[in-house]
Amino acid sequence: MLFRLCVFLVFQLAGVAAGAQLGGRWGALIGLALGGGLWFGLDLLRAAHVLRWLRENGTAGAPALRGLWGEVSDRVRRLLRQREQQTQDGEARLREFLAAIQASPIGVVLLDKAGRIEWCNQIAAAQFDFDLQRDVLQVIGNLVREPAFARYWAAGDYAHEISIPGPGSTVSRPVRLSVQLHPYGAGRKLLLSRDVTALEQAEAMRRDFIANVSHEIRTPLTVLSGFVETLRTLPLGEDERSRYLALMAQQSQRMQTLVSDLLTLSRLEGSPPPATGVWTPMSSLLERSLQEAQTLSALITHGERVGHDLRPIWEPDLRGLGEIAGAPDELHSALSNLLNNAVRYTPAGSLVEIRWQMLSEGRAEFSVKDSGPGIAPEHLPRLTERFYRVDRSRSRDTGGTGLGLAIVKHIVQRHGAELRIASTPGLGSIFSIVFPANRVRMSHPAPPEPAPSPVAAPSTESLQK
Ligand code: ADP
């Protein structure tokens, strides 16, 4: 400011000096006024320079001025730079924030006061089938037309989430969305959505499972308590008594089998996958399973002369049959479940073929082919569900729990193998397990003599598939 005053005085003094020389006292006075006016004019020019620069709103190219106007333009330039930096920082933060919401597994929709979509992330767009460009500023009620959502919106009570079917949901492929509105700001709303299809299916399965277990246990329990009551109240003869006791033993055996299968399932679900370093000879697994199947066949056919024709088939050069890596008990359980099912669902006297063969790329396949009633195609995808039965009475009569194939499926998955089911109604079924190469090895030393067939009088054939 002092500098500015000094320059002003210098201009006036220069005017006075020039005026006094040219016109005496009056000249000095006029020089004084002209000096002041000249300074003022120059100052106005500098101010106009700064103003023009400000109007052009540029941070670069600020006028190179000294004095007050130089300082003003310098400070304004710094302020503008600061503001620009802050805007850039704010925009970067907003971009990061939006990227975080985009990455969220939850659908997010921002709605204005009128319920129009201002912004939504890709998850929400996919869940509600929104078009990210076209549907911006569309009223949400026009796009989500589910009556339950319309009622929820109108009621204005958003304390709880609601579950609605997603667009494209069908009976065979249901999609469920959980939706909740959160009011914020001045009348705006945040809509959060989650795909709860798997969750609701798991919950339904849990309910069904409990209902099924209760039903399976209640039936033999009712029979048992009926017999207990009869034995307590009626004076029965020895024959009748022992017949009733045998029936009671049968029912308690049924419950025991059920509980044992349930425990097996929960053990399979809760334990880590079996190690790949424990090798079990396939011959011993086959032998054990075949013997059990023969015992079962004799039991089911009540010792009739014609049992099932259980026929193991493998390539003749597969001496020793190789080895499988995994949990021996689980492998035995899977093999014997398939074999027992073939016996249980195939009429006495029919042929059941048991194959063990190498496939391409080092894989191997165990398969059981029966000539039973077969299974209609619509049942095939559901066979491994717990308690799913096609032939309910045959299952119960032969001691089935409805859990066998569910157990097999778990075991197969835990061993990285694949369960394949092929069936033709009226002709029979083939259940097979394909083991991956890392769980099969054929390096087992060949026995000196051809190994005798593990079952009585089986015919060993060359494999032809
Ligand atoms: P279950 O204890 O009832 O046999 P599973 O889980 O082992 O239960 O089998 C499920 C259903 O699949 C059975 O109830 C039966 O209806 C059908 N099933 C299984 N194996 C065969 C087969 N080899 N032939 C015909 N139906 C079969």
How are the SSEs ordered, and which strands pair?
Elements: H1 2-55, H2 67-103, E1 107-111, E2 117-120, H3 122-128, H4 140-143, H5 147-155, E3 162-165, E4 176-184, E5 188-195, H6 197-233, H7 238-270, E6 279-281, H8 282-300, E7 309-314, E8 323-325, H9 328-345, E9 351-358, E10 364-370, H10 392-397, H11 404-414, E11 418-424, E12 428-435, E13 440-441
Helix pairs in contact: 1-2, 6-7, 7-11, 8-9, 9-11
Helix run count: 11
Name the beta content range.
Answer: 15-25%
Q: What topology, given as strand order, has the largest sheet?
A: 2-1-5-4-3
Instruction: Identify the overall geometry.
Output: elongated
Radius of gyration: 44 Å
* DSSP, total strands: 13
Mean pLDDT: 88
Low-pLDDT stretches: 446-465
The SSE order reads HHEEHHHEEEHHEHEEHEEHHEEE
Helix/strand class: alpha+beta
Largest sheet: 5 strands, antiparallel
Gap between N and C termini: 106 Å
Helix content percent band? 40-55%
Give the ligands present. adenosine-5'-diphosphate
Can you walk through the features of this model?
It is a single chain. The protein has a 5-stranded antiparallel β-sheet with strand order 2-1-5-4-3, with helices on both faces. It has a 5-stranded mixed β-sheet with strand order 7-9-10-12-11, covered by helices on one side. The protein contains 11 helices and 13 strands. The C terminus is likely disordered. The N and C termini lie far apart (106 Å). The chain is an alpha+beta fold and 465 residues long. The chain binds adenosine-5'-diphosphate. The site of adenosine-5'-diphosphate has 21 residues, from helix 9 and helix 11.
